[in-house]
Amino acid sequence: MTVTEVLQRANRYVSFSPASQDRIISFISPVALLVVWELAARFGWIDTRFFPAPSSVFATLIHMFQTGELAEHSLISLKRLFFGTIIGGIPALILGIVMGLNRTARAIVDPLVAATYPIPKSSILPLALLIFGLGEGSKIFMVAVGVFFPVVINATTGVLGINKIYLDVGKNFKADRWQTFWTIALPGAMPVIMTGFKLGIGMGLVLIAIAEMIGAKSGLGFLIWSAWETFSVEQMYVGLFMIAIIGFILTIIMNELEKILVPWKTN
Description:
Layout: H1 3-10, H2 18-42, H3 54-67, H4 69-101, H5 103-116, H6 125-132, H7 136-160, H8 164-172, H9 177-215, H10 220-229, H11 233-261
Helix pairs in contact: 3-11, 4-5, 4-7, 4-9, 4-10, 6-7, 7-9, 8-9, 9-10, 9-11, 10-11
């Protein structure tokens, strides 16, 4: 019996909305994976030297939280992710909408975006370290680069996807460029822009971990790398789990924010 069938049977006795059912399924699926992993470790189906049981990983996680070490590394990575998202996301949002509204701007910038986007973002790290050094600047720059491209591409695509009749109505009512930007282009492209921010934040998490592994003495990436150097496998998985948990929580926050900013979007 599938999870959906169980929820359908339970719905006969307790009323679940479709959104509530989706949340329950989203919670059950990772828990089920952890249960299978735990059973595989306990019955010896996997090598626990490389794949320790989730219970031992969570015990290490709780211990590291109690000592304050994990919270410190997590907060540092979140701070870098936050500033990198702001620095990379806001200019990308403005530039993407301008490109969508202005053919000349699109002709100038689009080839540059198309040429630089395929470059592996992790390969920019040596240049970032050369320019910004080992301080916070290089880590924030890496996140900003990771966030910039998905947002600018999605913002441009979102504006180009707006029905032209809305832009014509704005022209008929003598809307200036700022009014067109704020009342037509931004709301019309918002569903696609939110997708860009979700992709960008996910890329930012990947890049911040890479940057912290090589050029930092703090953060979750540094925690993972130092655990690997000392073969502390449980601590290494703690760092990986924290990145996964942060990504999961940020996705939920972005989904709820999207419901507020884009209430007209259908599921």
